[in-house]
């Protein structure tokens, strides 16, 4: 039997004891009312397979993902126009995983199949290395490395899998810009170094987000003062 729960005040105990989540309907406060904003769906492995915007009178972005053996193999993004009852493709990605090298490769295409970028990710014990060859400004069907912008990110993780430091390299810039993360009981900070606007940003960690992080669910929960959530379980 389907079980749907509307979250109004607290979530922690309920989330930790609940079955696997099938979908989340997010409501955002506008004036004195909460209106639907986003619908998200997960498979039984906790992978996000659908993200659908709600409420925009002109169009809403829909992102669908396909998984095979618990790995993402395809993703498509389109804008749904209700008046025309059609979804216009904005981009799509193909994913590959090389068992020998441990590298996950994403190739992102324009609607006409031109390539916008190729991203390769390699996960080590507490380090994630991401390398991107980008033709962002001039997508091409004949990608050449010498014409690409090359970006490399090295991210260090703690024993909980959280980012603690990221180094962002651009092949055309001598020094990287840096992110440093620090975690506390109910918040975390993000320090930016080497940018035009070096600063320290502070983010609150709600009970909902703590539980989502613990269960490794790809979802951002916001303050219940301005957002409500309707949860459907398998």
H/E topology pattern: EHEEEEEEEEEEEEEEHE
Strand percent estimate: over 45%
**Lateral strand order in the biggest sheet:** 1-16-2-3-4-5-6-7-8-9-10-11-12-13-14-15
Gap between N and C termini = 8 Å
Structural class: mainly beta
Which residue ranges are poorly predicted, with pLDDT under 50 across at least 5 consecutive positions?
7-13
Average the pLDDT over all residues and give the rounded result.
91
Radius of gyration: 20 Å
| Helix share bin | under 10%
Major sheet size, sense and barrel closure: 16 strands, antiparallel
- Total beta strands: 16
The DSSP helix count reads 2
Please state the overall shape, judged from the principal axes of the Cα atoms.
Answer: globular
Question: Which properties best describe this structure?
Answer:
234 residues, mainly beta, 16-stranded antiparallel β-sheet, 2 helices, 16 strands, 56% strand, globular
Itemize the secondary structure elements and their pairings.
Layout: E1 3-7, H1 12-17, E2 21-30, E3 33-42, E4 48-53, E5 60-68, E6 71-81, E7 86-98, E8 103-109, E9 115-123, E10 127-134, E11 149-157, E12 163-170, E13 177-183, E14 187-193, E15 199-204, H2 207-214, E16 227-233
Antiparallel strand pairs: 1-16, 2-3, 2-16, 3-4, 4-5, 5-6, 6-7, 7-8, 8-9, 9-10, 10-11, 11-12, 12-13, 13-14, 14-15
């Amino acid at each position: 039997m389907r079980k749907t729960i509307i979250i109004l005040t607290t979530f922690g105990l309920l989330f930790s004891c609940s079955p696997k989540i099938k979908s989340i309907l997010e409501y955002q406060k506008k004036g004195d009312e909460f209106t639907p904003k986003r619908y998200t769906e997960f498979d039984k492995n906790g992978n996000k397979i659908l993200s659908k915007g709600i409420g925009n009178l002109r169009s809403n972005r829909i992102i669908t993902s396909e998984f095979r053996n618990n790995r993402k193999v395809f993703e498509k993004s389109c804008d749904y126009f209700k008046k025309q009852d059609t979804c216009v493709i904005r981009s799509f990605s193909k994913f590959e995983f090389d068992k020998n090298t441990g590298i996950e490769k994403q190739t992102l295409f324009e609607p006409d199949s031109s390539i916008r970028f190729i991203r390769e990710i390699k996960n080590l014990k507490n380090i994630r290395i991401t390398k991107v060859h980008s033709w962002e400004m001039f997508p091409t069907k004949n990608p050449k490395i010498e014409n690409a912008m090359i970006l490399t990110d090295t991210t260090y993780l703690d024993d909980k899998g959280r980012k603690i430091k990221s180094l962002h390299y651009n092949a055309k810039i001598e020094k990287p810009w840096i992110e440093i993360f620090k975690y506390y009981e109910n918040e975390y900070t993000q320090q930016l170094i080497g940018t035009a606007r070096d600063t320290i940003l502070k983010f609150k960690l709600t009970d909902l987000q703590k539980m989502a992080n613990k269960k490794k669910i790809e979802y951002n929960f916001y303050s219940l003062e301005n957002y409500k959530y309707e949860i459907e379980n398998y």
